[in-house]
Write a structure and sequence with these properties.
mainly alpha
Length: 140
């Protein structure tokens, strides 16, 4: 025979099962701001040592680049940040980035994410978020 206490306990367990916890964001899944910052730092290093891609950054304010890329990555992966920078089209205007160099930069980002410990599944999700921005970056 089920007592009232046993019934109440079973009801609480079943009720908690029917209310799923909110799905965590990609930002949380990759490790939050610590990982975002590590990706950004790794990406800057990757760019620094790439003889082709570094040419696009010669005149850049690296401090601002670091800050805005961190905001951008945080915001677009569902983190608590707001992106306060220019649009991708504005940022890349006049750079005439070729498709080859764009793809090379994506490879550098993949290297940066790998070095930050981001698994391939999460890397693919991040790349999928940024893929629609491609046309705002090349041949501008």
């Amino acid at each position: 025979m089920i007592t009232r206490i046993t019934f109440a306990a079973m009801w609480l367990v079943l009720a908690s099962c029917s209310n799923p916890t909110p799905k965590s964001t990609l930002y949380t899944q990759i490790g939050g701001q610590q990982t975002v910052d590590l990706i950004v730092e790794n990406f800057i290093r990757e760019i620094e040592y790439d003889p082709v891609i570094i040419e696009y950054f010669i005149e850049s304010d690296i401090g601002r680049f670091r800050e805005k890329l961190s905001e951008h990555l945080c915001f677009h992966t569902g983190g608590p940040c707001q992106y306060t920078g220019d649009t991708m089209k504005q940022v890349h205007q006049g750079m005439q980035i070729s498709e080859t160099d764009f793809n090379r930069t994506v490879d550098l980002l993949i290297n940066a994410m790998t070095k930050a410990g981001v698994n391939h599944r999460h890397q693919n999700k991040i790349l999928a978020i940024f893929a629609p921005m491609r046309s705002d970056m090349i041949y501008q």
